[in-house]
Amino acid sequence: MKIAEIRKLSTTELANESTKLREEIMQLRRRIYMGEVQNVRSLRYKRKDLARMLSVLGEQLAKEDM
Fold first, then answer.
1. Containing H/E element for 44?
2. pTM of this prediction?
3. Of 58, 66, 64, 63, whose CA–CA distance to 15 is shortest?
4. Per-residue pLDDT tens digits for 44-63
5. Per residue in 26-45, pLDDT tens?
């Protein structure tokens, strides 16, 4: 997901998406460990997407507090 798409989401949507992404990362880790997934780079991409979402979420929460 691109940063422009992430910035369009509201704080509640970002919180929900980050929760879903965390669950996907857990499942992907499990599947990689079991040997079901060959493309281990997909885990890296999902982690970076999660980091982007959390960064934007922090920015939006900081703006709301002011």
1. helix 41-65
2. 0.89
3. 58
4. 999 999 999 999 999 999 99
5. 999 999 999 999 899 999 99
